Amino acid sequence: MKDKILSINLETQTAPIVQEVRGKDYIEYGTDDWKNLYPQFLIDLYYNSSTHAAVINSTAEMIAGEKLVIESDDENLEMYVKLKKFFRHANSKETLHQIVKKIAFDFKLQGAYALHIIYNKERTEIVEIHHVPVERVRAGRPNAMGKVDTYFISADWSNTRMNRPYPIPAFNTKDRTSASQLLYTGAYSPNMDIYHTPDYLACCNWALCDQKVAEFHLNNIENGFSGSYFISFANGVPTQEERFSIEQSLKEKFTGAKNSGKFILTFSDDKTRTPEITPISVSDADKQFLALQELLVQNILTGHRVTSKTLMGIDSKNGFSSNTDELINAANFYQNTVIRPFQTHILDTLQTIFSVNNMDLLVEFEQLKPITVQFDSKTIREVMTQDEIRESLGLPSLQEEEEVVDEKLSLAKVGSMITDDIEMPLYETKEEAEAEAERIGCKGSHVHTQDGKKYYMPCENHEQIMNLNKCDCKEEFITPNPCQSEYETLGTKIKDGREVPNCVPIKAKKEFTELEKFIQEYGEDTLEDWELVDEEIVDGEHQDFDFEKTLNDEANKKIELASTGTARPNARSSQDGVNKSFNDFYKVRYVYTKDNFLTQEGSTRDFCSKMISAKKIYRKEDILQMGKKAVNPGWGPRGANTYSIWLYKGGGNCHHFWLRRIYKTSLTNAKAKINSSQLISYTKARSEGFTAEKNDNLVARPPKRMKNNGFLEPR
Question: Rounded to the nearest 5°, which phi and psi values hold at 493?
Fold first, then answer.
């Protein structure tokens, strides 16, 4: 008989399995127990091993550092300002360092990180970068050269039916046909060409063992700390086959970490035939568990290359205050051998992004410093000068600050002159005047002489100065129109160092096209107060099928409103209508999207460019209405100005299609929880079984993939 405290299968597969699967465009990445879910396995391991999680959290913080700093370069001031602006606004919601903190965590936990790269309209610069959780990324099949040129994103890879993977081109600065790309990278992993594995892979089994130990203790507590039992059956000696069957049944039901402390209940009408159950006490069980715990911690730390527990926030026997030297030495070792390679890899990636935008300045991490308690503040003030203390804190010396102030004073304006009723500054150098000119919105400089000495005034001439003062504004930023009559706003401009409306004559602005009028009137911005619960290529949906109404009707059948008396009709647009329970549950909208798998030939037609750049979402009925307007004249049958935009998009050879998005509002008044995925799946099935004439497959296809490339006759 084998005695077990824990039932841990030491053959558990923790190394990843990478394989191609027939019929799938992506490469699966998982284990035997976590099929195509290896990143999720690592996350589960992180959440269930306290020691493992402590190391990952501390390491990720060290990698991210205090902040990112740019090495000053006086010769490239414009580049410096541009990069500084990118630091503050890497995207509309995050700074660059906020993104770096996320990718540092992914890099340590997953061994890789991913960034969503977005170019400007001209594809000349990167305007935004977004963090993409690694667990949502899978690599597409490599090309003939073994290089992955497409990645797939899914919100949940455990359910790809409800969370269909969608492709995104791999980051490639030489091919910018797509407005967005995915940058997936990580450290080198032996025998791994497609994916990257974490540096602690060898200790995953120990982290898993730590998880099982925790489960064992938790179940012991829940079951009253009962011990193991010796079971004797007093009804004769069964056959060998029967004994084996009983043994296997008991093993399956009552062994293992999750079954610790459970009891056996038997029923018998004969006292002489009842099993005898005898408790067995394990000698020195407490010492065994302590030894196992120490072994687990040590092996997990070794797998992470940690030489000191204290560095990771794990208490040691000697106490924190007596381990200052150990902490400093361990921090230096860990910083140079572990943290620095992670940081170098991230910086190399960032430099690649910066180079696209012509921001090739040296960037470094400002390191986190370990806290020591060797000296108190009084002792430090007695033995160190102010400049030495400031240096230890990463601050410039007081002398350097004075020099900087003096330098700024030497560059200050030397006076001013009123010209054409406008007061303008004067500078001793041409460079200073031109810098000020750029700041206030003109260019160049010109010379003024006073008392026989030359001074430089911003702007090339006085006509530029007069134009600076022409705002033509009634009052700054009054809506709807901040400009005088016969003027309207077209963006903003800088005047006197301030941002003001840029007012232009109405006659100078071209008339809106039918398409521009439609986008302005019917196009909606992303629904901020609504949760995006589904996004899928339109498939099997006839133009007469009302997806939104059907979905809400089904929701009404499932929901029970609480009798709080607060339920009321939501504020809906005139376009939406009201469902029978007077509650907005779901909205269905469509977005104009490019098929990135089609090769771009020639330039993008004006209709498609404006639809994409507008970044709007539309109701189906409005898209159908668009087909009655000359939004893309000349691309209808035999050159007609109107045609079905719902089916044929931008016309023959077009590379675009409609993508369906389903949004859900907060169901605060609902007693019953609505299963959105089930409702959406049911509605999709209804749409595919709609009795109207079946021409709906065209909605999901770009004209380029249609018969005759979307034209009436072959070309």
Answer: -145, 165
d(CA 503, CA 517): 21
Report pLDDT digits (tens) over 564-612.
333 333 333 333 433 334 455 788 899 998 887 776 666 778 888 888 8
Q: What does the block give as tokens for 629?
A: 């307007």
**Phi-psi label, residue 306: left if phi above 0, alpha if psi -120 to 50, beta otherwise:** beta
For 25-47, write each residue's pLDDT tens digit. Answer: 999 998 888 889 999 999 998 99
Query: How does DSSP assign 493-526, residue by residue?
Result: EEETTEEEEEEEEGGGSPPPPHHHHHHHHH-B--
Tell me the pLDDT of the chain averaged across its residues. 75
Which among 523, 587, 582 is positioned nearest to 551, based on CA atoms? 587
Q: Are 356 and 125 in contact (CB under 8 A)?
A: yes
Contact 530, 665 (CB under 8 A): yes
CA distances from 564 to 216, 561, 665 (A): 45, 8, 19
Taking the alpha carbons at both ends of the chain, their separation in whole angstroms is 80
CA distance 417 to 447: 12
Retrieve residue 391's tokens.
Answer: 């240096």
The pLDDT value recorded for residue 57 is 92
What confidence tens digit (pLDDT) does each residue in 159-218 have?
A: 988 899 999 999 998 888 888 999 999 988 888 889 999 999 888 888 888 777 777 777
What's the pLDDT tens digit per position in 245-286?
776 776 666 555 555 544 454 444 555 555 655 555 555 555
In sequence order, the 6+-apart residues with CB closer than 8 A to the CB of 372 are 324, 327, 328
| pTM, to two decimals | 0.48
Instruction: Please give the sequence-ordered ranges of beta strands (E in DSSP) within 506-606, or none if there are none.
Output: 531-537, 586-594
Nearest to 100 by CA among 405, 365, 321: 365
Contact 126, 183 (CB under 8 A): no
**pLDDT tens string 489-501:** 666 666 666 667 7
Examine residue 480 and say whether the peptide bond preceding it is cis (omega within 30 degrees of 0).
yes
Question: CB-side exposure of 379: number of CA atoms within 13 Å?
Answer: 4
Give the SS3 label for residue 585: coil
**Cβ atoms 117, 180 nearer than 8 A:** yes
Residues 62-87: what's their mean pLDDT? Answer: 84
Note the pLDDT of residue 51: 87
Pair 68, 365: CB distance under 8 Å: yes
Q: In the 8-state DSSP scheme, what is residue 582? A: S
- What is the Cα–Cα distance from 207 to 204, expressed in whole angstroms? 5
Distance CA 446, CA 455 (A): 8
Give the C-alpha separation, 296 to 286, whole Å: 15
Tell me the pLDDT tens digit for each residue of 619-631: 988 898 888 888 9
Please state, in angstroms and rounded to a whole number, the distance separating the CA atoms of residues 434 and 439.
Answer: 9
The amino acid present at 658, given as its one-letter code, is W
Stretch (H or E) spanning 324: helix 324-334
Q: Tell me the two tokens of residue 131.
A: 């963090």
Q: Tell me the pairing of strands 422-426 and 445-450.
A: unpaired
- pLDDT band with cut points at 50, 70 and 90 for residue 669: very low
CA gap 51, 309 in Å, rounded: 10
More confident residue, 349 or 13: 349
User: Distance (Å, rounded) from C-alpha 605 to C-alpha 656?
Assistant: 11
Residue 453 is inside which H or E element, if any? strand 453-458
Token match 């089916």: residue?
Answer: 647
Cα separation, 302 vs 308, whole angstroms: 10
The arrangement of strands across the sheet holding 126-132 comes to 126-132, 112-119, 180-186
For residue 578, what pLDDT is reported? 36
Both tokens of 106, joined, read 């992914």
